Amino acid sequence: MASPTESRLICFNKPYGVLSQFTPEGRWRGLKDFIDIPGIYVAGRLDADSEGLLLLTNDGKLQARISDPRYKMEKTYWVQVEGEPDDAALERLRQGVQLNDGPTLPARAQRMEAPANLWERDPPVRFRQSIPTRWLELVIREGRNRQVRRMTAAVGYPTLRLVRAAIGPYTLDGLAPGTLRDVPLP
Asked: What is the pTM of this model?
């Protein structure tokens, strides 16, 4: 455990229904329900209805470097979409799609099997027997508001579940929802 004055970087597996802030708001819980570390701040955001990796630090410069799109830190998402995306839809994601706030940068997009060891979501994702779902891996370098959800919708496949699996070299590996671990500083 680092001393209070040492720089720290923490990986946290943010559960569904938790905001990327310490204070709860409306029906959403805050990080204070899971993290009791003075002086630690979120580096980047993840919507309350998304799950997965959130980085926190007590180092302002590191926080800015992780959060700032100029540093182009890749973010890897596992995205469960409604329907079966065809090759044309994946190619559109790879080329960048037009959103209402402008075009996205090209993304890496591929189909994937359901992630191994993925926890159940509470509440569960809606299931419609007549419409299949498919998992995609999407890697982006931007971080616009609800960007991944807007990208999949723009190519005709709404997001049902969104899990951030990695930010740069940091991953969810071995991290259960609601738990955290210190990681070495870059």
From this structure: 0.93
How many helical (H) and strand (E) elements, i.e. helices and strands, does the chain have? Answer: 3, 11
Which of 36, 47, 59, 173 is catalytic? The answer is: 47
Note if 122 is an active site residue: no
What's the token pair of residue 140? Answer: 């982006």
- 65: number of Cβ within 10 Å: 15
139-174, pLDDT tens digit by residue? 999 888 899 999 999 999 999 999 999 999 999 999
Q: Which two tokens stand for residue 8?
A: 């720290």
Instruction: Locate all alpha helices (DSSP H) within 21-179, ordered by sequence.
Output: 60-67, 87-95, 147-154
Give the integer Cα–Cα distance in Å for 20 and 50.
10
The whole-angstrom distance between residue 70's C-alpha and the CA centroid of its chain comes to: 18
Task: Give the closest residue to 88 by CA, choosing from 156, 176, 12, 38.
Answer: 156
Q: How many CB atoms lie within 10 A of CB 49?
A: 15
